[in-house]
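Problem statement: downstream parser choked on a complex file, so we are re-checking the raw output for the zinc ion run. The parser issue turned out to be on our end (a line-ending mismatch), but while we're here, posting the original submission so the record is complete.
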Amino acid sequence: MSTLRAHKIGSLLFCPTCGTLLDLPGDGERSVKCEQCGHEEPGSSYEGIEITTRSHPDAFPSPLQQKRKTQTKRHEGEDVGKGTLVSEKCPECGHLKAWSKEMQLRSADEGSTIFLSCASCKHGWRINN
Ligand SMILES: [Zn+2]
Ligand SMILES: [Zn+2]
């Protein structure tokens, strides 16, 4: 007797006569009956909604995971940097320029350690501050 169709709000359907949230139809069910007023909503009203609900769990995780992967790659690339070129004499070949990288140790008492690598022969050594 009633030709009213349910109100769609997002992925939810609400009864057009009393405003009650309608359940999704079970397998094989052609319509959903409103628990409050007995309004029968045809199952066809849910067709578009079921598709969007199903696509959500698949659509969200993959772009998020891809974002995380690219962010991790960028961080690794920054750590590989040579550091700053400083005037330090290489104990191995006597070259006067070396790449310097300062590393803060866990304990504050130990201060920081400067890692040096010769710009000429790539020999590596460290200086404790
Ligand atoms: Zn109702
Ligand atoms: Zn050297």
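For whoever reads this later: The chain has two helices and eight strands.
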